[in-house]
Structure formats: structure tokens, C-alpha cells
Write a structure and sequence with these properties.
The chain is of the alpha/beta class and 279 residues long. The protein has helices at residues 3-15, 45-51, 56-61, 107-116, 127-130, 134-142, 162-180, 196-204, 224-234, 251-266; strands at residues 29-30, 73-74, 77-78, 86-87, 93-99, 122-125, 146-149, 186-187, 208-209, 214-215, 240-244, 270-271. The structure holds zinc ion.
Length: 279
């Protein structure tokens, strides 16, 4: 157990859900190159756009995320043209994220493991899951984790109109606020499928778009060992890991965390949550 993580956790417990930005939170997030693509059959527009040289042809192929007009500022949240993919800054820092929950079959086990090692993580929750499991949202916030918004019903946003996207985001933020006392400051598009409306509406609702660097593809239930290997092989400073605590049988994801979390800590990584940076 690392001393700074213990301290971080104590501070987080004191500060509760307001712990974002507290000492111990990781440095600045920046867009970068994704190590892996998003789920098959869904355009990983952000990662692909970032990986390509910025040529006019690439721009035309990726009009929604690569190169938008200059970002405008809505309140204190900028409208981005691509999601954040990794942490920038110094140090062996990584972020673990769990999507689609909460699910009472798996989320408590994940929370138990995170608590055992005194680390904080991010949970991108779906409103329709969160509404019936508010106790789990309360526990996430109480234990210093960051609760992000992953829409209400996990739709492909690129097929929805603006009004529906707004409603998917807003209702979910309402549920999180009711349970945790604060609205989410982070948003993640289902399937990693972003569009301009998602960036604009997310910013209007005070949320930064966060994607991921390493996709465990745990939702394909490839086996616990494969999930562990994907995390440890992909481990590097600034990496954001995507896993799931709901949406199907996630027992492999639960078991994998028990194995890779101590491995990462033994390798000298600090597992933490990002700090919002305000322009
Ligand atoms: Zn999802």
C-alpha cells in the first residue's frame, strides 16, 4: 500500500464528491494517440483522427472530431473537437474507468477491490442503470471515485437528433446529482461514437469528453487472463483504461481487476482520477 494513496483516499473521504482537483488527482488531460480502436463496427473517430497526420484529406474524412471551428467556451467548459484520450504530465499515473453500470452484481466487487488498494477510479454510469441503484452511486462518491455521465440508455449518439442527445445527457446528470450532490464533470459517448452535438451539449452541461487509451474489450468476455494482459501490456504513463461493470456478464472484468491492479501498483503506477483543468 502506498502512503500517498492512503493520504489521497483520506482526503477524498473528507472532501467527498467534491474531491475533484484535490491533491492526489492526476495532471492535465490532453488529446493524444489511442493505442487501440474503439469497439468494432463503430467509428473510433477521435483516436483515428489523432493518429493520422493532419492533412486536408484527413480533415474531410473526419469532419466531426478532428478539426472543428475554434472551440468556444460555455461557462468554464470548452467545446472540444475531439475527446480526451489520455493524461498528460509527468509520473507513472494511470486512470481506470468502468462503463455502463452500476450493476449490483458486479459494481460492489469492483468497489471492494478499489477500496482494498485505496485507489480511486472513474465510473461512467448510464442513467437507466443508475436510477435503480442510487446506493451504488452514493458509495462511489463517498469512496472518492468520479462518477461520469454515459447517457441514459447507451444509444449511438450519431444516429440521434440534438434534442434526444440532450435528454440522454441531462436526465443522467440529474440522477447523479440527486444521489451524489454534484453533477458529473465528465462525459463519455457510448461506443466511443462522438459527434459535434455531443461535444457542444456536453460542454453546455459542464462536462469534458473523456475517451480512453487502452480498451480491454472485456465486453467480449475474452477470458480473465486476456483482460489482465491487455491492461498490463498497455500500461504506460498517462494511459486511461476502459473496462465495464455492467452490460452483460462482467465476472471476468471483476476477476481481472483483482489481478492487474496489484500488478500495476507493484510496477510503480499510481492509479488516480483526472483533474479538470479550466481555461
Ligand atoms: Zn458503454
Amino acid at each position: 500500500m502506498q502512503k500517498d494513496q492512503l493520504l489521497t483516499r483520506r482526503r477524498a473521504l473528507v472532501a467527498g464528491a467534491a474531491a475533484l482537483g484535490a491533491a492526489g488527482a492526476a495532471g492535465v488531460l490532453a488529446t493524444g494517440t489511442g493505442d487501440r480502436a474503439a469497439r468494432p463496427a463503430v467509428p473510433a473517430t477521435g483516436a483515428q483522427a489523432a493518429r493520422r497526420p493532419l492533412k486536408p484529406s484527413a480533415y474531410r474524412l473526419q469532419p466531426l472530431t478532428g478539426y472543428g471551428p475554434p472551440g468556444t467556451v460555455a461557462g468554464r467548459t470548452p467545446v472540444r473537437g475531439a475527446p480526451l484520450l489520455r493524461l498528460s504530465g509527468r509520473g507513472r499515473i494511470m486512470v481506470l474507468t468502468f462503463d455502463d453500470g452500476p450493476d449490483p452484481r458486479y459494481t460492489p466487487d469492483i468497489l471492494d477491490t478499489l477500496a482494498r488498494y485505496e485507489v480511486r477510479a472513474m465510473f461512467f454510469v448510464c442513467g437507466e442503470m443508475a436510477a435503480g441503484n442510487r446506493d451504488l452511486l452514493v458509495r462511489m462518491a463517498d469512496e472518492g471515485h468520479v462518477v461520469g455521465n454515459h447517457t441514459w440508455s447507451h444509444p449511438l449518439l450519431t444516429r440521434l437528433g440534438r434534442g434526444r442527445i440532450r435528454s440522454e445527457m441531462e436526465r443522467t446528470s440529474d440522477v447523479v446529482e440527486t444521489a451524489c450532490g454534484e453533477r458529473p464533470e465528465w462525459f463519455r459517448a457510448p461506443y466511443g461514437a462522438w459527434n459535434r452535438a455531443a461535444f457542444q451539449l456536453g460542454a453546455e452541461l459542464g462536462m469534458e469528453p473523456l475517451a480512453w487509451t487502452v480498451d480491454t474489450l472485456d465486453w467480449t468476455t475474452p477470458g480473465t487472463r486476456t483482460i489482465v494482459d491487455r491492461v498490463t501490456d498497455g500500461a504506460a504513463p498517462g494511459v486511461v483504461v476502459l473496462s465495464h461493470d455492467a452490460g452483460g456478464d462482467r465476472s471476468q472484468s471483476v476477476r481481472a481487476l483483482r489481478a492487474y491492479l496489484p500488478e500495476l501498483l507493484d510496477s510503480g503506477y499510481r492509479i488516480t482520477v483526472p483533474r479538470r483543468q479550466y481555461a
